[in-house]
């Protein structure tokens, strides 16, 4: 995580990983997807100003760290996790991000439409 050099003040980061290159969103049962470990999540929380973490798979947490990585993020009440992003044609860079969630009463999450503007 440290090698990404995420500048202070950056509040939203989307991670386009090998999940996209391997087209894992379209394959069933592949548990080798890229996601956060507990240490990686903790580093991000402790060393950046990030309030939104997005990733190109169904979970921000690696399979072997499903609970522990999520717990790190959920300890910070104002961090939003966005999972299942389609980032096939998105190049690294700075974008404006708009996330449009459905308003679901009594729910802890919602399907959303995310829009990136270069």
Mind explaining what this structure looks like?
The protein is α/β, with parallel strands linked by helices. Helix content is 19%, strand content 19%. Helix 3 (66-74) links the parallel strand 2 (52-55) and strand 3 (80-82). The protein has a single domain (2-92), classed as 3-Layer(bba) Sandwich (Glucose Oxidase, domain 1), CATH 3.50.30.50. The chain is built from 3 helices and 5 strands; from the N terminus they run E-H-H-E-H-E-E-E. The chain is globular, with a radius of gyration of 14 Å. The mean pLDDT is 93. The strands form 2 sheets. A 3-stranded parallel β-sheet has the order 1-2-3, with no helix packed on it. Strands 4-5 form a two-stranded antiparallel sheet. This is Cyclase family protein. It is found in: Secreted, Extracellular space, Extracellular matrix. One of its GO terms (molecular function) is arylformamidase activity. Keywords: Extracellular matrix, Secreted. Its main location: secreted.
């Amino acid at each position: 995580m440290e090698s990404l050099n995420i500048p202070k003040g950056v509040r939203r980061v989307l991670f386009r990983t090998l999940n996209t290159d391997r087209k894992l969103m379209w394959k069933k049962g592949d548990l080798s997807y890229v996601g956060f470990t507990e240490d990686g999540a903790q580093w991000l929380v402790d060393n950046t100003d990030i309030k939104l973490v997005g990733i190109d798979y169904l979970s921000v947490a690696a399979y072997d760290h499903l609970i522990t990585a999520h717990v790190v993020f959920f300890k910070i009440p104002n961090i939003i996790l966005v999972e299942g992003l389609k980032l096939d044609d998105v190049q690294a860079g700075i974008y404006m991000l708009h996330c449009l969630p459905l308003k679901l009463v009594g729910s802890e999450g919602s399907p959303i439409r995310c829009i990136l503007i270069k």
